[in-house]
Specification:
Helix content of chain A: 40-55%
Structural class of chain B: alpha+beta
Number of domains of chain B: 2
Number of strands of chain B: 19
Oligomer: heterodimer
Distance between the termini of chain B: 25 Å
Number of helices of chain A: 9
Helix content of chain B: 25-40%
CATH architecture of chain A: 3-Layer(aba) Sandwich
Structural class of chain A: alpha/beta
Largest interface: A-B, 10 and 13 residues
Radius of gyration of chain B: 21 Å
CATH architecture of the largest domain in chain B: 2-Layer Sandwich
Number of strands of chain A: 9
Bound molecules: flavin-adenine dinucleotide, NADP nicotinamide-adenine-dinucleotide phosphate
Shape of chain A: globular
CATH topology of the largest domain in chain B: Alpha-Beta Plaits
CATH class of chain A: Alpha Beta
Number of helices of chain B: 13
Amino acid sequence: MSGPVLILGATSGMARAVARSFAEAGHPIQLAARDINRLDDDAADLRTRYGVDVTLHAFDALATGTHAAFFEGLDLPQIAICAVGAMGDQDQSAADPLGAAMVIRSNFEGPASILAHLANAMEARGSGTLVGISSVAGDRGRASNYVYGSAKAGFTAFLSGLRNRLARRGVHVVTVLPGFVRTAMTDGMDLPGPLTADPEEVGAAILKAVEKQKNIIYTRPIWRVVMAVIRNIPEPIFKKTSL
Amino acid sequence: MTRLGGWGRFPLAECNVVTARSEADVRAAIEAAPLIARGNGRAYGDAALNTDQTLDMTGMDRMLSFNDGVLVAEAGVLLGDIIHTFLPRGWFPWVTPGTKYVSLGGAIAADVHGKNHHLDGSFRSCVDWIDLMGPDGTVTRVTPSDDLYDWTIGGMGLTGVILRAQIRLRQVETAWISQETRALTSVQETLDAFEETQDVPYSVAWIDCSDGPHHGHSLLLLGRHARADELPGHWRPLEVRRKGKLPVPFGAPPFIFRGLWLRAMNGIYWRRGAKRAGTSLVNWDSYFYPLDALANWNRLYGRNGFLQFQCALPEETAAAGLKELMDTIAAAQTGSVLSVLKRFGPQSGHVSFPMPGYTLALDFPANERSLALMQTLDQITLAHGGRFYLAKDARMPEAVAKADPRAKAFAAMRKQAGLTEKFTSLQSERLGL
Ligand SMILES: Cc1cc2nc3c(=O)[nH]c(=O)nc-3n(C[C@H](O)[C@H](O)[C@H](O)COP(=O)(O)OP(=O)(O)OC[C@H]3O[C@@H](n4cnc5c(N)ncnc54)[C@H](O)[C@@H]3O)c2cc1C
Ligand SMILES: NC(=O)c1ccc[n+]([C@@H]2O[C@H](COP(=O)([O-])OP(=O)(O)OC[C@H]3O[C@@H](n4cnc5c(N)ncnc54)[C@H](OP(=O)(O)O)[C@@H]3O)[C@@H](O)[C@H]2O)c1
């Protein structure tokens, strides 16, 4: 139960906390990010605190052509967690469809591509766990961030299908739907305290979800209720709200 | 903008809070606007507040290396994290304040003291070097041979942003403290007991400052790290558990601070302690951090927040000064739940708080009466040659701070080094530092 854990998008605030949770549980850690020079201190931190092995791997989610080769020089992990994402700026995304495409590719195409490769390799091996960090923003498109939200919706559906496909193949898929989390992505935003999680909470929740083979988790759990309400608002009313 | 305070939640100010997660973030912040670094917000007053820019350092919390008791870590790492990581391996902080929820940067910037100051000195004793980012964004590794080291340790973030540091931990055999409790009935008796127990590593007294029959009663708590052979055979000597914290409901009613209640509480505390006087084994967490068991206990003081007064008095005048302070507090009947007395050893650094003698710390609810009383306490302290702890201060007038010649020297040094424009806090502005 303590095989290597691959973390994609390892410079993310959430990913850092996730890495600590799994390292504390004794897993060796493979950190992957665009700029691996930024990972040296994080790797040192995991080694110093938990005494686990840590390796660094260059990875760009948008360079999908390189994903097949990404595995070379990497032991196939027992668990792979994708934290890659980019919120972009909704006003900019609305005005500039090319910019919007980058947001969509960063949140959907890139993460789906690398997880597809990992899924195939794990399926062939007959074991493994994949974790995709999507977002509650994908549960219903809203004017305030529908470009990001729609990409996350696509990613959520992708994870759901992957889980279905691999359910009898020894590979488990966890969908993580965070609400608000205090990371660089939300810096400067006025976040409502009770609905906002610290990255450490998310790290602990993901470790637990993997250990207990949960399918879909919301962090904080209250978001399951919040989103159920939002999803059920009739469209004629919903289209006039500003949520 | 965020409504921010210190641990005493007085004063509160609308601050632009920026989070630093890397050295590059700190550099960008320094370029952008004047700022003060903030650790975990455990200083009581306005030392870590700047309305333009308060730089939250808790995102820089990486431990970088550990070898044989020598730790290199980023400034935002909490002391509690260090304990949870290294106590199971037999290492404990060299010096620790009364809460483990302080950051490494905050411990250095305030040059915190523990119950072992009389033997081991302040936090400075364990700091080998500091990586400090100055006003132009360059990073200097300052060591004890540099003048800047002595201004930075105890300098309350006013010399730059501490990025990381190397500190030494102490080797221990167990996570337990062998504690001896003595119940004493007067200030003089308490001071005599402190003097007589100077070779005991840890000592602290809780002393009753109320105006009841227990005035001057104290419990002297003496401690040392227990050896493995002192524990019952089936105990695991270095086991460290993460304990939950009990929450405190928002805004307790202010009546709990009236003298009567306090007298009762202090009296009960003393009688319970007196009954248990003697030697016992106490878990590290309960011994060093009894208050940490209650999350947000600062909210007990209600919406208006609270103030802490902490002064140090030199050896020669300590007895007379303490008596006058305590009599004045009792007469004011504003009450003080926590009155803590400690012995201090030699002084170090250019601006650190401790001086050889005694330190007294008390909490007051934040209101006009307390503020007036504290002004009287200021004058008594000054008349006895004492000084004040900036980490606890939220309201001192500039003249009182500047009665300490070191404050004037610090202000001059800051000006000359071009630090005054870049690194400022509400406290440094109030005190003209
Ligand atoms: C319950 C309790 C008990 C306490 N007991 C003691 C005690 O026994 N002995 C004692 O000495 N103190 C004690 N204190 C005070 C506390 O130890 C100090 O205030 C300490 O500085 C708090 O650290 P922090 O990380 O919370 O810093 P903050 O409160 O956030 O900041 C304190 C100061 O440090 C500076 N600072 C913080 N981080 C940096 C950085 N990275 N670079 C530059 N400057 C920085 C800030 O600018 C500010 O001036 C106690 C406090 C509490 C709440
Ligand atoms: N914070 C929230 O409130 C919140 C809420 C719901 C969901 N989420 C999701 O949670 C995940 C983690 O986000 P976070 O909050 O931790 O924010 P973050 O710190 O901004 O993390 C985003 C991460 O994605 C990486 N990334 C972006 N594009 C990439 C690419 N092309 N290739 C490789 N990596 C790329 C970034 O790497 P670089 O450092 O190289 O840019 C960064 O590490 C994201 O998927 C986000 O959408 C966050």
